[in-house]
Amino acid sequence: MAETIERKELEDLQEDLHEVQELLRRQRIVESLVHRTEGPRHELEERLVHRQHEAELRRKLDAMHPADVAYILESLPIEERLVVWSLVKSDRDGEILLEVSEPVRDSLIADMDQHELVAAAEALDADELADLAPDLPEEVLEDVFRALPVEEREQLRAAMSYAEDAVGALMDFEVVSVREDVTLEVVARYLRRFDELPDHTDQIFVVDRDEHLKGTLPLTKLVVNDPERIVATVMVETPVALYPDDKAQDAAQAFERYDLVSAPVVSERGRLLGRVTVNTVLDYVREKTESELLGIGGLREVEDIFAPVWESVKNRWSWLAVNLVTAFVASRVIGAFEGSIEKLVALAALMPIVAGIGGNSGNQTLTMIVRALALGQIQPDQARKLFAKELGVAVVNGLVWGGILGIIAWWLYDSVPLGLVMTAAMTLNLLLAAVMGVAIPVVMSRLGRDPAVGSSVLITAVTDSGGFFIFLGLATLFLV
Amino acid sequence: MAETIERKELEDLQEDLHEVQELLRRQRIVESLVHRTEGPRHELEERLVHRQHEAELRRKLDAMHPADVAYILESLPIEERLVVWSLVKSDRDGEILLEVSEPVRDSLIADMDQHELVAAAEALDADELADLAPDLPEEVLEDVFRALPVEEREQLRAAMSYAEDAVGALMDFEVVSVREDVTLEVVARYLRRFDELPDHTDQIFVVDRDEHLKGTLPLTKLVVNDPERIVATVMVETPVALYPDDKAQDAAQAFERYDLVSAPVVSERGRLLGRVTVNTVLDYVREKTESELLGIGGLREVEDIFAPVWESVKNRWSWLAVNLVTAFVASRVIGAFEGSIEKLVALAALMPIVAGIGGNSGNQTLTMIVRALALGQIQPDQARKLFAKELGVAVVNGLVWGGILGIIAWWLYDSVPLGLVMTAAMTLNLLLAAVMGVAIPVVMSRLGRDPAVGSSVLITAVTDSGGFFIFLGLATLFLV
Q1: Is residue A178 helix, strand or coil?
Q2: Crossing angle of helices A102-109 and A78-87, rounded to 10°
Q3: Percentage of residues in chain B with pLDDT exceeding 90?
Q4: CA distance A258 to B66
């Protein structure tokens, strides 16, 4: 990255965005004038002004960091976005495509022809290309693949072969390596032959003749130690080494725990394959938690805020459909007790409280268990302990909140039995919520599924239908 | 950090945990034997075995990274946790306290006397101490403060003066700086005087006589360039510089966008105050998203999974109380229509569907808007565009899903008017959800509040009560 490109905080970026929007607005005005005025001289003049605005925009974009151009593109409605995109220098297309979110990327790629796409892709490293590949048309990918040098072609093939959530998918190939039997002086001379070192080179990898990893030489050690010393005496002999099939999640935790900047990736036999750097890990953590947040909110994937209505409907329908089914089931549970409700209409007003509080309480337990599972804190022999504790919490909450609501029900409808049923139903539904709040994520994780996905819908479905059933059932038994 | 300390991935860590548990179990057995058997010879023998287990545990813990000891402590029930804690070397207490989650930290601190706490705190840097300070008893803090050298005392005072979510709170003071008019050779000689450089030193700061930041010298540049060159000709002149009062969130975004490892922090006048490193940012991002996830799940803070029932009840009650109030309001809305329900009991069974789907749809809109706000993608003049789009999505969803449910209601209860009311109510409640899904986070953010906190409860409250009111109101008007 050239140093002339300034890096900014969000506030300054928003100012940039406003400037871009202002320039776009002026340009639009000029365009509409060109269309309206007639004389050829007028037209020529307006065109000139138009050109000037365009040149200014171009200059502005050229001076911006790719990630900042990505921000501008994401913040603009689709027509303006494409105007800006057409003004970006084509040799920067690739790195910018890597930075934008997926739906925005799709909208940009849809606007490019095959030639442009091939050019953009060819400007990228193998590991970056692997990230972009799923979004590229088949023909483009083939063209790029054919044009690659053999080594990079192999790297691309390797990078694309790993699962999306494996360390291999986070790996890059920009490793600088030295032998262990040379002096630091030799290493220093070797490094000086580079124009620049790859980004995030905080350590150099030490390998033997067969490329087996022997250790790592942090730059901080290289610079503080006597140049006469031998690499082997200075290097870190047992660095964290990752395998390409390790879970990305575990690698991310290792980076966090040990405050790493980069880590080598080795084959089963210890051959150095590549490295993972902290910026990739940071992106991974962000994407992972973001998709978790989206999942909780009921969105399938990141949504372009300027997506057409139809795209948004598609992104959201599956979740709504699932909820419609669970709501329908709950509705049928109520339907089974219509006779009781007809006789005692207060039940209709009180039943959503029992179901709602059960859902909240179940989600509290669930959230805690899902977090502990992700951190590997729950051992098999502790499940019983956790059940016991959660049941204890449920009993306390049931008696306290159920008691309060029982008194309110008694006061509202002047019926002690109704109050007692309310308290009992609340307690039982909270117990159900506690059991399911522990059981659902633990079972999902035993089955090898991510307990964060879908368990919230499941528990709400159980506590809704269960809450209606328990409350209306008790009422039918004791009140009607 | 000594290189003899191995770093591990989660799987290996879990094995360690099992070993520790096994050792603890054996020790407990021995202890119970000591209590049961009588003869003094027996006792002596058992004590010896006990000692051996203890020594083995101690060795195991000494060889572990502080973050890994923290993991073990968090995964153990409270009694076993305190046994392990007592075996940890006291000079490591400080760094381990920094690594554990807050509730576990509290449980450990409660087990230490003042003398131990002061010793633990004194082993830390000023910025680390500032992180720990809120959890330490007043007297301990005073003791530590008095014992600090003047410079560190000032640093601690400064670090503690910043808001928790300001860059100042993430800053450390371990900066290595040089002048711009010296050669790289001189810099190299200067660095060789250090035993080791601070962690995450990817760049050296270039300052003038008055400590004003002039630029930064990345180590990667130091090692590839000719030693004869002058620092000023090699350094990065416009690095990302943060101010201590900047929002931590904005700094984190800058680290992500520009793939930084460290960034200087300067005063308003450009004096170098300290630096922020990527590991702190990674921790911050993790904590921030974690507290967001906890908030959505209805927990006030991270919960120690082995916390006593009472602690858990305290952590969860406030959220349940809020929900109880909103559920009560919804219940009263239903109560107002009891007459209609008595006449047409089908309404009781159908009404939760209208409310539930409204809540889901509202949360979808909300999730998208909150994300866009956090990324600074929403401009004031675009609010109308977003409203229009979300209303469009709501109309489509309302007609599709509302239509399906209308047909089902018609089929179940053999009443066309009931089906039409169902469809109309669904559409109206989805429109309400769309409006509130955009309005709530936008208004909260205008008021300077975090739109991610509490807006989900708010929208669910509106769509619940609103859904009941719309459906029962329409039914009362047209059906009863």
Answers
A1: strand
A2: 70
A3: 50
A4: 9
Given a contact cutoff of 8 angstroms between Cβ atoms, the answer to whether B49 and B1 are in contact is: no
Q: Which helix (H) or strand (E) holds B276?
A: strand B272-277
Tokens of A255: 């980076």
- Answer whether B334's CB lies under 8 Å from B468's CB: yes
Q: Using the Cα atoms of residue B151, residue B157, residue B162 and residue B166 in order, give the sign of their dihedral.
A: positive
Beta-carbon contacts of residue B358 (< 8 Å; ≥ 6 apart)? B426, B429, B430, B432, B433, B463, B464, B466, B467
Q: pLDDT tens digit string along B124-160?
A: 888 888 888 888 888 888 888 888 888 888 888 888 8
Q: How confident is the model at residue B217 (pLDDT cuts 50, 70, 90)?
A: very high
Domains of chain B: 10-164 (1.25.60.10), 177-297 (3.10.580.10), 309-478 (1.10.357.20)
pLDDT band for B373, please (50, 70, 90 cuts): confident
Q: What is the mean pLDDT of residues A432-458?
A: 89
Region A465-479: what's the mean pLDDT? 96
ipTM above 0.90, yes or no: no
CA angle A422, A428, A430 (to 5 degrees): 100
DSSP assignment string, A381-440 = GGHHHHHHHHHHHHHHHHHHHHHHHHHHHHHHH--HHHHHHHHHHHHHHHHHHHHHHHHH
Distance CA B68, CA B19 (A): 13
Per-residue pLDDT tens digits for A120-160: 988 888 888 888 888 888 888 888 888 888 888 888 888 88
- Nearest-angstrom CA–CA distance, B311 and B320: 15
- Of B241 and A6, the structure prediction assigns the larger pLDDT to B241
* Euclidean distance between CA atoms B47 and B41, whole angstroms: 10
- Is a pLDDT exceeding 60 seen at residue B27? yes
Within 8 A of B278 by CB-CB distance, chain A residues are 261, 278-279, 282
Cβ-defined contact of B197 to A223 (cutoff 8 Å): yes
Question: In chain B, which among 265-304 make CB contacts under 8 A with chain A?
Answer: 278-279, 281-283, 285-286, 289-290, 292-294, 296-299, 302-303
Burial of A193 (0-12, 13-18, 19+ CB in 10 A): exposed
- What is the distance between the alpha carbons of residues A436 and A439, in angstroms, rounded to a whole number? 5
**DSSP alpha helix (H) spans, A171-272:** 184-191, 219-224, 231-234, 248-258
Residues of A in contact with B321 (CB under 8 A): 401
Please provide the size of chain B in residues. Answer: 480
Q: What is the pTM (predicted TM-score) of this model?
A: 0.83
